């Protein structure tokens, strides 16, 4: 990766490897390996009481591994952090498309983290974030997020408690979930939605819109309204329905017209009504519709979310714990949202491991509303964890009570799940120009 070469010179990686190898040669062994910012290097965070934390003994990161797992259509990127005490932690980075790049960034961060105590989660986040210096994008922030998850898993296991207990404890007994549904025609959309509700007991669901980039305004509205109406009639008046525009609209006015057209069906929210870069345009949509709005999956870190939340342009904020910065960052975003009377509905299209991480967030966050979810009852989702969190018949999932995340990767299954290159499909207007989706 080139992102640090501008700051530290091309020889940084070689210097780090040389330092680690030299310490191991001098007798450090497995427990003596230290990253360039190890706690006893005389720089950075220094250990207390010989490295003890409470009644738990000293602990150091010895290695960071990655697993790139094929999930059919995309990959899942897993992080596993090993320690000299035999405790390991797992996390998930967002699958961005160029997933090999995310793996390389994680491997680069490893040079800075080996030798540190993994339980100092905020400190190690700061090491990664501050050393990167330039604000990260999807690749860098996903790498940071996956590593941060694994640190929390270790912290929970070391303390002998679930992660939610380290985040202020539980605020609820179970976690409400919803799943996405679809259908090429209004009739299919209604039938699929009804079948999903009957199978899993969900009290909410989400659906996309019928809006190719070349579709005229009136057809966009007419077709989408027909689908939303069919789903509402199929599931009845009390099921919450999220309508996901998926940022297919460039013009705020188009989103405004659609929002007003579907208002009669009482949607739970209209999601990503326009692209997320222009917060003023998002506020314009908010000022001209009378339905709840949701967005946030494409935003990172507290500094992007702060102005968005202050604008009061959203009713639900949707950070993704696999790329927004991780658990601590997500908790900070939720706290800012709470101060603005905004609920949190995490974006969660990744694997069952990401679901488990989100469940701990949801359990400990007062302004959590609902979690995006996909039932792990078939395909890769069924096999990637030893015991995935399964939805009950009331549309809720239970909160794990084992130390750490309470789940473990099924590494044996990875042998039959090879990764494959993938990229998002590009959509084109009738004149040949590509449009955002």
Secondary-structure arrangement, i.e. CATH architecture of the largest domain: Alpha-Beta Barrel
Number of strands: 14
- Structural class comes to alpha/beta
Strand content: 5-15%
Radius of gyration, CA atoms, in whole angstroms:
23 Å
Report the span from N to C terminus.
28 Å
Named CATH topology of the largest domain: TIM Barrel
Instruction: State the CATH superfamily name of the largest domain.
Output: Enolase-like C-terminal domain
Q: Major beta sheet, specifics?
A: 9 strands, mixed
> What is the count of distinct domains?
2
Indicate the low-confidence ranges by residue numbers: 1-36
Per CATH, the class of the largest domain reads Alpha Beta
Compressed to H and E, one letter per element, the order equals: HHEEEHHHHEHEHEHEHEHEHEHEHEEE
